[in-house]
Write a structure and sequence with these properties.
The complex is a heterodimer of chains A (about 350) and B (about 240).
Chain A (H helix, E strand, L loop, with lengths): L8 H19 L3 H26 L8 H18 L3 H23 L4 H20 L3 E2 L2 E2 L6 E2 L16 H22 L2 H11 L1 H6 L4 H27 L1 E2 L1 H4 L2 H14 L6 H20 L6 H16 L5 H27 L2
Antiparallel strand pairs in A: 1-2, 3-4
Chain B lengths: L3 E10 L2 E11 L4 E5 L6 H9 L6 E6 L2 E2 L5 H7 L1 E4 L11 H9 L6 H14 L15 H13 L5 E5 L7 H16 L3 E5 L3 H7 L2 E6 L2 E6 L1 H6 L1 H8 L9
Parallel strand pairs in B: 3-8, 3-9, 6-7, 7-8
Antiparallel strand pairs in B: 1-2, 1-4, 4-5, 9-10
Helix pairs in contact in B: 3-4, 3-5, 4-5
Classes of the chains: A mainly alpha (about 350), B alpha/beta (about 240).
C-alpha cells in the first residue's frame, strides 16, 4: 500500500484526529466544554515550548512562567499605553522573554541537575515578588499584586479579543500545532541531536565538538520566545493578568508535571500529558476547589507518583504502542478486504 | 613542523603536582605511546591537550597554533579527537545517532551526517548494531563506538585513552588491526595504554611518565630496556616476541 494514500490507516487515522479537533467547535457549542479544550491546548502549547529546554536538553526548568509573565505584561502594557494591538505586542513580549531566558540561563546553566532547577525557582519567585511589589515601572503603572485588566474591545480580531470561545479555540489549536512542528523540526536537526547529546553525557558531547553553553542558551531563547507568546494568549483569553497567576509557581510546576507524566523529551508527550491531566485538574477544581484550594495539585502529585512507579518515561511510549496496535489491526483489516475483492 | 608540540607543561591540583615540565613532540603520521603507573598524570596530559582545564604554565601547539586556552569543543573542531578511558556513550541514543553527533561537527544536515556516520560505523565494523541503543552494547562494542564517534569528527590527531582495557585477546587483536588501519587513513595517534604487548607493537615512539614527569622517551626497544622505566613501571625487562 502506498504510504501516503488516504486509504492507508497510517495516514487517515492521524489526519482524522486532526480534522476532529478542528470541527469540534462546530459540533459542540457548550462554552464550558470549549473552555476546557482551550485550556488543554494552552497547557500543551506551554509544555511543548518547555520541552525544548526541559525535555530535549534535559534542563528541568521550574520557573518557566517568568516568560509567560513577561509576554503577558509586555503586550498588555503596550496595549494600554500605546494602543498597540496585542498581535504585535505579542512578539515584543516574546523577544523580551527570549532575552530574559538567555540572561537567566547564562549563570544558571553552569549548575547541574537539582541545583539548576532550584535556581530557576529562585529567579521566578524573585521576579514575581518584584512585580507584586511594584506599582509602577519607569513611571508606567503595573499595579503590582492587584493585577491589570486588559482594556475591553469587545469582539475584535484586530485587538485579539473575542466574545465567543471559538476564535480562541482555533488560535490556540493552531499555536499548539506550530509548537509541535517546531519541536519536530528541532528533533531532526543538528541542534536537536546536540541537545540530546548534552542531556546524555555533557563531557562526551563537548569532546565531539558541541558548544554546550551556546546550545543550551539557544534552547532557552527559543523556549522562552514561544512561552512568552503563550503569556499573551492567556492575557487575551482571561482579559486580566496578575503576578500570582501569570508569574505563578503553580503554573510553572503544572507544566513540569504534564511534561514528566506525558513523556519528557518526546514529541507528543506534552499533548498527551495535557489531555490526561487538564480534564482531571478542572474536574477536581470544580468539585473540590472551592473548599480545598490546590487540591488539583495533590491529584497531580498522586498521578505523578503512580506514573513514575509504573511508567517512569511517561505515558507517551505506552500510548504510542496502543496506537500502533490499532493501526496495524486496521491495516490488516484493510488488506483482507482487498484480498477478498481480488479473489472474487 | 610537528603536528603536536608540548613544551614545559605544568599542572597542579592544589598541592598535587600532576604534570611537571612535560615536553613532547608528535610528528604527523606517527603512533606515539604514553605509558606509566596509574596516577602518573597520563590522562591529565590528555585533558590539558583537549582543554578540559588549562595548564598552569607551558605551551601546546597544534599545527603551529597555540591551543592552551581552548575549550574541548574547540580542540575537537581544530582536529583533535578523543576516546575516553571510561567509555561515555550516549546511552539513550542508538549507535548510529551517537556517531551522527560526531559527524555533525563536520557536515550540515541530518542526511549527510547519517551517511557519514554509516561510513564510519562500517569502518569500525559496527554496522550490524547500528540501531541498537548504546546502553545495550557490550564493553567491547562500547569501546568501538567511542572510536567511531571520535573518527566521525575527522580528526588529524586521535587521543586514545586505554582503549584495550577490558578486552579479551581476540577483541584486542581486532582493535590493534583497527588502529593500524586508522593510521593508514592518515590519522596521527597518541595512545595511553597499560597492555604492553599492544603499545610496544604499535608505537613508533614511547614516552614514560612517572609522578608527573617524563622519565624516558624513545623507540620501544630502548624504552623496554631502560633501567628507570623498569624500576618505575615494567617490573622486569620487556621481552619482544614476534607479533
Amino acid at each position: 500500500m502506498d504510504r501516503f494514500s488516504l486509504t492507508s490507516p497510517r495516514v487517515y487515522v492521524p489526519l482524522g484526529l486532526v480534522v476532529i479537533l478542528f470541527i469540534i467547535p462546530l459540533m459542540v457549542r457548550d462554552p464550558i466544554f470549549l473552555h476546557l479544550m482551550i485550556l488543554i491546548f494552552f497547557y500543551a502549547y506551554l509544555t511543548l515550548s518547555w520541552n525544548i529546554v526541559g525535555g530535549f536538553a534535559g534542563q528541568v526548568s521550574l520557573g518557566h512562567t517568568a516568560f509567560t509573565g513577561i509576554g503577558a505584561y509586555t503586550s498588555t502594557l503596550l496595549f494600554i499605553q500605546l494602543g498597540l494591538t496585542p498581535w504585535i505586542g505579542m512578539f515584543a513580549g516574546a523577544f523580551l522573554a527570549a532575552l530574559m531566558a538567555v540572561i537567566i540561563g547564562y549563570p544558571c546553566f553552569k549548575l547541574r541537575g537539582a541545583y539548576f532547577a532550584l535556581s530557576t525557582i529562585g529567579f521566578l519567585e524573585a521576579f514575581r515578588i518584584v512585580v507584586e511589589n511594584s506599582n509602577e515601572v519607569f513611571g508606567i503603572p503595573i499595579k503590582g499584586a492587584q493585577g491589570m485588566e486588559v482594556p475591553l474591545r469587545g469582539d475584535s480580531l484586530l485587538y485579539f479579543q473575542f466574545l465567543d470561545k471559538e476564535p480562541y479555540y482555533y488560535i490556540i489549536l493552531i499555536m499548539m500545532f506550530i509548537a509541535l512542528y517546531v519541536t519536530y523540526r528541532i528533533s531532526k536537526s543538528k541542534f536537536g541531536y546536540y541537545l540530546l547529546a548534552i542531556k546524555n553525557d555533557l563531557e562526551a558531547a563537548e569532546s565531539l565538538g558541541v558548544n554546550i553553553a551556546q546550545s543550551k542558551l539557544k534552547a532557552a531563547a527559543i523556549s522562552g520566545f514561544l512561552t512568552g507568546i503563550g503569556g499573551t494568549f492567556y492575557a487575551q483569553l482571561i482579559l486580566f493578568i496578575d503576578p500570582a497567576n501569570i508569574i505563578g509557581a503553580y503554573l510553572a510546576f503544572e507544566i513540569v508535571f504534564i511534561a514528566v507524566i506525558g513523556g519528557r523529551g518526546t514529541l507528543l508527550g506534552p499533548i498527551l500529558g495535557s489531555f490526561l491531566l487538564i480534564p482531571v485538574s478542572e474536574l477536581t477544581r470544580v468539585y473540590l476547589g472551592g473548599t480545598y484550594f490546590g487540591v488539583h495539585l495533590i491529584v497531580f502529585g498522586t498521578i505523578l507518583i503512580v506514573v513514575m512507579l509504573f511508567l517512569p518515561r511517561g505515558i507517551n511510549d505506552s500510548v504510542l504502542k496502543v496506537y500502533h496496535w490499532v493501526i496495524e489491526k486496521l491495516e490488516r483489516k484493510g488488506s483482507h478486504a482487498l484480498e477478498g475483492v481480488a479473489s472474487r | 613542523m610537528a603536528l603536536l608540540e608540548i613544551k614545559s607543561l605544568n599542572k597542579n591540583f592544589g598541592g598535587l603536582r600532576a604534570v611537571i615540565d612535560f615536553d613532547l613532540s608528535i610528528q604527523k603520521g606517527e603512533i606515539v605511546g604514553l605509558i606509566g603507573p596509574n596516577g602518573a598524570g597520563k590522562s591529565t596530559v590528555f585533558n590539558l591537550i583537549t582543554g578540559v582545564y588549562p595548564p598552569d604554565s607551558g605551551h601546546i601547539l597544534f599545527n603551529g597554533d597555540p591551543i592552551v586556552n581552548h575549550k574541548p569543543y574547540e580542540t575537537c573542531l581544530k582536529g583533535i579527537g578523543r576516546a575516553f578511558q571510561v567509555v561515555k556513550p550516549f546511552p539513550d541514543m542508538t549507535v548510529l545517532e551517537n556517531t551522527m553527533v560526531g559527524a555533525f561537527s563536520r557536515v550540515e544536515g541530518a542526511g549527510k551526517a547519517k551517511a557519514k556516520a554509516i561510513e564510519v560505523l562500517d569502518f569500525v565494523k559496527l554496522t550490524p548494531k547500528r540501531n541498537f541503543m548504546a546502553k545495550t552494547l557490550t564493553i567491547a562494542d562500547k569501546k568501538r563506538l567511542e572510536l567511531a564517534r571520535a573518527l566521525a569528527t575527522d580528526p588529524s590527531l586521535l587521543l586514545l585513552d586505554e582503549v584495550m582495557a577490558g578486552l579479551n585477546p581476540k577483541e584486542t587483536e581486532d582493535t590493534i588491526a583497527l588502529i593500524r588501519e586508522i593510521r593508514e587513513r592518515g590519522i596521527t595517534l597518541f595512545i595511553i595504554e597499560h597492555v604492553m604487548r599492544v603499545i610496544m607493537s604499535l608505537s613508533d615512539r614511547i614516552a614514560i611518565i612517572h609522578h608527573g614527569s617524563k622519565i624516558a622517551e624513545g623507540v620501544p626497544k630502548e624504552v623496554a630496556q631502560d633501567e628507570r622505566v623498569i624500576k618505575a613501571y615494567l617490573g622486569e625487562a620487556y621481552v619482544f616476541t614476534r607479533n
